Amino acid sequence: MFTIDDLADRLGGYLPQSEIQQVKRAFYYAEQAHDGQRRRSGEAYVTHPLAVANILANMHMDHQSLMAAMLHDVIEDTGVDKEALALQFGAPVAELVDGVSKLTQIAFEDKAVAQAENFQKMVLAMSRDIRVIIVKLADRLHNMRTLGALRPEKKRRIARETLEIYARVASRLGINTIRVELEDLSFHALHPMRAERIKRAVSSARGHRRSAIRQIQNTLQQSLDDGELPSTVVGRQKHLLSIYRKMRDQRKSFNEIMDVFGFRILTDDVDSCYRILGVVHNLYKPVPGRFKDYIAIPKANGYQSLHTTLFGAGGMPIEVQIRTREMEAMANNGIAAHWLYKAGQTDHPIAEGSRARARSWIKGLLEMQRHAGDSLEFIEHVKNDLFPDDIYVFTPKGDIMELPQGATVIDFAYSVHTDIGNSTIACRIDRHLAPLSTRLESGQTLEVITAPGARPNLTWLNFVITAKARSAIRHALKHQQHTEAVQLGRRLLNKALGEFETSLEELPEGLLSGLLGELGLKNEEALLESIGLGSRVAHVIARRLMDLQHGDATKQHTQEGRQLGPIMISGGEGMIIKFARCCHPLPGDPVVGHLSAGKGIVVHRAECRNLGELKADPEKLFPLEWADSIDEDFLVALRLEVESHRGLVAELAGVITDAEANIERIGIEERDARLATVNLVLAVRDRVHLARIIKRLRNLMHVERIHRLGN
User: What is the b/e burial string over 494-523, where b = at least 16 CB atoms within 10 angstroms of the residue's CB?
Assistant: First the structure.
């Protein structure tokens, strides 16, 4: 079993004794804080932070990162707070631990929101200290190594999150060793049988091809030695998920994938890389169009290498990667190579370049976060931003810009600068005018044409793919919406004031400012915008203005005005009218409206229990009536108690489709060996339509009871 003394011995290779003692002190503190806690596997909990610190030691991370690894679950799982850690170990370590800790004190609606909020918190911590994400990746790697003790559904959820977020982040930061292991462990958790079959097949294939691989390797090494090029040729192994994805995406058999031999050639300097390329091209013919120079144009994560594919003996494809030993360290450790080189008391330009690129990426994340509407929108932007395949295009001045595969002219414009993207009206690709939606290819030169006063177009969201462009366009459209909302709000309020034979322009001076003070709004424009966006209802504002102008005498008139004509609704009002999810009102149901801050009027069924609490504030309740002509569909929830049998879902779907309704959601819960509960959310026209559907469902042999849900 790995102990703290074993770790201390390893750290002695690159850390001074004073720092090793601080790491050991953090371990003993964590051991005491987690005393009595055990992992699902039955081991003492402190074995987890010790293992995380060991992963970081492989990267030669600094002592503060190792201390944070020891303490990373203390805030989350024990009674120790951030302030106590800062007193014991200093503010930098406390900040690292807090950045890795989840938001445990907040109750989230579901796992997706929790994931998004926690990742958003971590991004803010990353912006202050990049080591936060390295500690988190090591934490996630050990958790993935020990998934065996968890329930199958939890395994799959964690594995999916790891693939979607953490493996991609490791790739973006260039930490290839962690990325590959995270991907393979996730693959095993999500598809255990497929992973095991491919693993056995790979092992068998390598055994059969061992002699061919050794022969090619010896031939390459001999040619390089003859050319007096000091280098090392090693076989390159594909990892399991990479093989599976190629089989799936390229529709190739396992044998076709494994027939490609991969080799890596390591040398001492960049000049030797290009000379080695000449030797291997002289030895084997290169495959046209399969050469990539990532030394001259590094990937976004700092990865550098020469890639070429050759025709080997008998036409066998040979993939060769040529790089320096520093580039190899960079490919494996990415941003962590910064500390790898610092441990050797020297900063290396490759590692420093990676650190600068990482800072630039995190700066982009923060910009996306500011523009995103909420944490779920932000995390979707992040997922879209973590593309593995890139293209390289040029500005008119010859600067290289890296973009994801499938990027368009608009993506390019926003990658240059947000203001350029917002004011783009046209572009030239290789000096020829091209549509803004054109998909870009590597090697193209782009010139963006802008105009003062130009604004983003809503249709751009249909074809942009970079997260920066998408979030910047949405942010600009929100501002663009302001003017239109103010104009609409003015029209709606004047229409409502028309019931009292007045208008906004005819109101006495000072009356509106009194209402603005009461509502806590800065100016008339803010009030009109809130009406235009549906956050406030014009009828309510108009009646309140009349109350302020005429006092009690008008209150009676106001009440009469309200009784004269309920607000008519048809379901097509957009943002101003919303329908309560608790009771799912339908045309034909008696309904009541409630003014909800930020939502406009929320429509409830008159018997909805939630109205009980709302009746304490009668000013916010309104009588509503359904319009005579309604063309919209409305959601309604049903619960069916049925006998379980094969083809149940198909049978229900057939009846509902024949009744001209749509199934929006369906869920089945097994109650016992015979009975099941089916929860349906349907889109229907009105109560009559719903009654016809329920009648048809009751005629089914296996349906015992049907309830319309709504509290």
Answer: bebbeebebebeebeeeebeebeeeeebee
Average pLDDT of span 635-653? 90
- Helix, strand, or coil here: 603? strand
Do residues 531 and 489 make contact, with C-beta atoms less than 8 angstroms apart? yes
pLDDT at 479 over 60: yes
State how far the Cα of 184 lies from the Cα of 159, in Å rounded to an integer.
10
CATH class assigned to 4-145: mainly alpha
456: DSSP letter = -
Position with higher pLDDT, 592 vs 616: 592
Long-range contacts of residues 455-458, Cβ cutoff 8 Å, at least 24 apart: 455/422, 455/423, 455/480, 456/421, 456/422, 456/480
For residues 248-264, give the mean pLDDT: 78
- Rounded alpha-carbon distances, angstroms, from residue 633 to 100, 686, 696: 45, 8, 19
Do the beta carbons of residue 594 and residue 621 sit within 8 Å? yes
CATH code of 634-708, in short, is 3.30.70.260
Do residues 162 and 144 touch, judged by C-beta distance below 8 A? yes
Model confidence at 279, pLDDT cuts 50, 70, 90, reads very high
Please give the Cα distance from 517 to 8 (Å, whole number): 65
Distance CA 256, CA 101 (A): 45
Give the whole-angstrom CA distance, residue 304 versus residue 328.
8
Residues 190, 102, 141, 258, CA torsion sign: positive
* Spatial CA neighbour of 335 closest among 186, 132, 163: 132
Instruction: Give the mean pLDDT of 409-420.
Output: 91
Task: Classify residue 400 as exposed, middle or buried by CB count within 10 Å of its CB (0-12, 13-18, 19+).
Answer: exposed
Number of residues assigned to the chain: 711
Quick one: tokens of 215? 């022969």
Where in the chain are the domains? 4-145, 466-565, 566-630, 634-708
Q: Give CA torsion, residues 276, 280, 281, 287, to 10 deg.
A: -120
Query: Taking a C-beta distance cutoff of 8 angstroms, is the pair 317, 310 a contact?
Result: yes
3-state SS assignment for residue 128: helix
Q: Is the pLDDT of residue 249 over 50?
A: yes
Q: Which residue, among 463, 376, 263, 61, has the nearest Cα to 52 in the 3D structure?
A: 61
Q: Which residues are catalytic?
A: 76-77
Give all strands (DSSP E) within 424-557, no chain letters.
424-429, 432-434, 446-450
Q: Token digits for 248?
A: 């799936």
pLDDT in tens, 120-140: 666 666 667 778 888 989 999
Number of Cβ within 10 Å of residue 415's Cβ equals 20
Task: Match 């500011």 to its residue by tokens.
Answer: 370
The whole-angstrom separation of Cα 73 and Cα 135 is 11
Residue 68: CB atoms within 10 Å:
35
Q: Say which amino acid occupies 114.
A: A
Of 187, 156, 182, 161, residue with least CA distance to 170: 182
Contact 687, 586 (CB under 8 A): yes
pLDDT 10s digits, 490-522: 866 887 788 788 888 888 877 888 888 888 888
Is pLDDT at 346 greater than 70 in this prediction? no
Would you put residue 455 in left (φ > 0), alpha (ψ -120 to 50) or beta?
beta
Tokens of 646: 């094969």
pTM confidence score: 0.55
The tokens describing 455, both together, are 């604004």
Q: Which residues contact 217 (CB under 8 A, 6 or more apart)?
A: 233, 234, 235, 263
